[in-house]
């Protein structure tokens, strides 16, 4: 999932193996944690820290998506006598289905990473649809560290065929462009010029940027965040500059920033016949960039996001995205899980159970973290207590679990369990909130709940089909290469033809992501999708027409032929009709139970995501008895990327290490040198009153 912001599509420095990628992001620091290189915390499979050997700690993880599995993996690397219990209700999850071939059209899942294997009518495996994570940026250093742990440094990778990485056609109104990288059929295309203009002024590339980060242009910050030898003083300065940048600009949308650039520099863009006023030209170019973005499409639907969120992605500075050396990406997370399982052995307990409540129950022996749950579809309520719990769920799934206990630190009696659903419940004494950040006043505890509840998940949808490569000769070409990516304003957004990852099928079939949309683009299609998230056959949809047929109908229109002024039926319509009917799949993340596409900050949301990102620092407060920690890409500053999920897992495990070793400064000393920066350079979420 997630937003692809590749500003240098022409980069030719491409990797062949995971080992080639390891150095790319090894020292990268994200602006919200500018003094911390997360990949170095786990470099060489080193443990984040140590747990007390004289304690038999019981630790639980709720949720086994990317963050939960990374949390389990990091806990398994810690020396100690700790045991881990995992709660995951999904019967088709990799932790319950160990056979990687046990895949049907619903897919084999690990949270929001899952795939579906497409088969012919004869049962032949053809290709794989990556419904969740499908591509991995070269700069994602933590992701590649874990990939190396699973596949080794010699694991083969391939560049993902994003628009612009392969021969691509862009359709917007009367603009029909073909390009690959920085090679364009029309070098003076208005599309290319507005893209270059916006990037130039967002980055400050040879010009004064629209927004400064301290006294630096964003382009000057990028190499400092990536370099191995950037000084501690410089990184501390960027840290402070970025905090002020977020305060100053979190109210600005990406759309407002683009319009401000166009309003100030419209004279640098070509005149367009028929647009007679400056306002018309600004509006046209605004929409043109909104469809094309940085070359991978779909940006108009994201214009309402915060410019702070977009600047994070720009500073992440990647030129390529890659595929993993697996058939389905979920096998990556399965590999991490099995490594953790092998290390923990009998100390790992797996429960197929749905958690309904989490809370504290103070006792004279401490403050047990309590989990209430229903085992595998049963109505009887079960309750277990743990020393520490890591809540590895997206915000929309987490909110009901933390809400019922309330925000008051005053101990009280509470009923737990889903009474409204007619299920078993229990009365518990001495209940305190799970996200307990103040044991005297309730406002800060309520602040924690509101931070989770106010995060925002995008709407995202994908429509797949299998493409028989025998039709490749029917694709139009650009520079003698078949066009295998399309960006369109016709309700399809971005489309890709990706070679099958199934061994022996690479030359025969491709996975055809015929439409990948975000937010407003998906909303516009919603009425056509029928019964989400099903894949209706003919006669089963709302008017008897399955989704893919309605998608094809959207592509049935005339466009200006590339390189000419004549209009003719769009070739893409014919290609869509050749997609095999038997295994078409429509999937809408916003209505699926795993809670949507990916977190993305709207204006004003920085305070919420940053609050959740630093939640682990409550372990510095020696007066708090809090036993819960958060892990999910929802609580990172890279919502939607595995990198953010993995970062949050590192934060959560570091918090457990600190809390178990005595909280405060003493506990921090139990972390490795790089992990200590998670507490010494990030602002604590509470102020210690010891």
Description:
The protein is an alpha+beta fold. Helix content is about 30%, strand content about 20%. It contains 20 helices and 28 strands. Strands 10-9-8-22-23-24-19-27 form an eight-stranded mixed β-sheet, with helices on both faces. Strands 12-2-1-16-28 form a five-stranded parallel β-sheet, covered by helices on one side. Helix 3 packs across helix 18 (about 640-660), helix 5 packs across helix 9 (about 280-290) and helix 8 (about 255-265) crosses helix 9 (about 280-290). The chain is globular and about 80 Å long.
User: What low-confidence regions span 5 or more consecutive residues with pLDDT below 50?
Assistant: 100-107, 529-544
Helix content: 25-40%
What is the count of DSSP helices, taking H or I runs of 4+ residues? 20
Topology, number of strands: 28
- Give the percentage of residues in beta strands: 15-25%
Describe the largest sheet: 8 strands, mixed
Shape: globular
| Widest sheet, order of strands | 10-9-8-22-23-24-19-27
Query: How many whole angstroms does the radius of gyration measure?
Result: 25 Å
Give the class from helix and strand content and strand pairing. alpha+beta
The overall average pLDDT, rounded, is: 89
- What separation lies between the terminal Cα atoms? 43 Å
């Amino acid at each position: 999932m997630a937003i692809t912001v590749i500003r240098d599509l022409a980069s030719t420095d491409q990797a062949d193996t995971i080992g080639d990628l390891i150095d790319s992001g090894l020292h990268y620091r994200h602006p919200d944690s500018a003094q911390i290189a997360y990949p170095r915390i786990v470099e060489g499979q080193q443990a984040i820290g140590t747990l007390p050997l004289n304690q038999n700690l019981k630790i639980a993880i709720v949720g086994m998506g990317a963050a939960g599995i990374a949390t389990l993996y990091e806990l398994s690397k810690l020396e100690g006598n700790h045991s881990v219990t995992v709660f995951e209700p999904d019967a088709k999850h990799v932790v319950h289905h160990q056979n990687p071939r046990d895949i049907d059209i619903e897919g084999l899942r690990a949270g929001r990473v899952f795939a579906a294997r497409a088969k012919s009518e004869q049962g032949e495996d053809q290709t794989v649809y990556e419904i969740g994570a499908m591509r991995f940026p070269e700069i994602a250093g933590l992701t590649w560290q874990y990939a190396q742990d699973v596949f080794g440094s010699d694991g083969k990778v391939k560049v993902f065929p994003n628009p612009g990485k392969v021969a691509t056609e862009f359709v917007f109104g009367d603009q029909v462009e073909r390009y690959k990288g920085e090679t364009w059929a029309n070098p003076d295309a208005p599309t290319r010029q507005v893209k270059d203009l916006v990037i130039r002024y967002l980055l400050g590339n040879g010009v004064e940027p629209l927004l400064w980060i301290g006294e630096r242009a964003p382009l000057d910050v990028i190499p400092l965040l990536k370099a191995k030898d950037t000084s501690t003083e410089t990184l501390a300065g960027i840290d402070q500059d970025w905090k002020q940048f977020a305060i100053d600009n979190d109210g600005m949308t990406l759309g407002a920033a683009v319009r401000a650039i166009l309003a100030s520099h419209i004279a640098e863009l070509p005149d367009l016949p028929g647009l007679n006023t400056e306002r018309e030209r600004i509006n046209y170019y605004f929409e043109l960039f909104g469809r094309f973005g940085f070359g991978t499409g779909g940006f108009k639907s994201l214009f309402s996001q915060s410019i702070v969120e977009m600047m994070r992605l720009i500073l992440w500075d990647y030129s390529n995205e890659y595929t993993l050396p697996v058939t389905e990406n979920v096998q990556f997370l399965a590999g991490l899980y099995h490594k953790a399982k092998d290390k923990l052995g009998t100390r790992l307990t797996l429960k197929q159970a749905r958690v309904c409540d989490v809370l504290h129950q103070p006792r004279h022996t401490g403050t047990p973290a309590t989990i209430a749950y229903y085992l595998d579809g049963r109505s009887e309520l079960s309750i277990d207590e743990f020393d520490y719990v890591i809540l590895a769920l997206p915000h929309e799934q987490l909110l009901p679990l933390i809400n019922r206990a309330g925000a008051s630190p005053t101990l009280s009696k509470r009923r737990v369990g889903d009474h409204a659903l007619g299920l078993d419940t229990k009365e518990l004494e001495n209940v305190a909130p799970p996200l307990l950040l103040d044991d005297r006043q309730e406002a800060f505890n309520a602040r924690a709940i509101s931070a989770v509840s106010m995060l925002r998940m995008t709407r995202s949808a994908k429509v797949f089909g299998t493409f028989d490569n025998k039709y490749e000769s029917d694709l139009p070409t650009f520079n003698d290469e078949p066009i295998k990516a399309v960006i369109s304003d016709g309700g399809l957004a971005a489309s890709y033809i990706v070679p099958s990852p199934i061994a022996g099928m690479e030359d025969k079939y491709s996975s055809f992501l015929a439409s990948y949309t975000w937010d407003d683009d998906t909303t516009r299609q919603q009425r056509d999708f029928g019964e989400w998230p099903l894949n209706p056959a003919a006669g089963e949809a709302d008017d008897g027409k399955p989704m893919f047929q309605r998608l094809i109908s959207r592509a049935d229109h005339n466009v200006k032929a590339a390189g000419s002024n004549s209009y003719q039926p769009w070739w893409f319509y014919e290609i869509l009709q050749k997609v095999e009917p038997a295994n078409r799949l429509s999937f809408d993340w916003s209505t699926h139970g795993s809670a949507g596409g990916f977190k993305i900050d709207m204006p004003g949301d920085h305070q919420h995501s940053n609050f959740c990102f630093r939640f682990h620092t409550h372990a510095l407060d020696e007066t708090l008895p809090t036993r819960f920690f958060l892990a999910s890409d929802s609580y990172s500053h890279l919502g939607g990327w595995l990198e953010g999920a993995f970062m949050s897992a590192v934060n959560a495990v570091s918090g457990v290490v600190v809390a178990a070793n005595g909280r405060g400064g003493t506990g921090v000393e139990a972390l490795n040198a790089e992990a200590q920066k998670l507490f010494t350079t990030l602002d604590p979420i509470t102020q210690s009153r010891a």
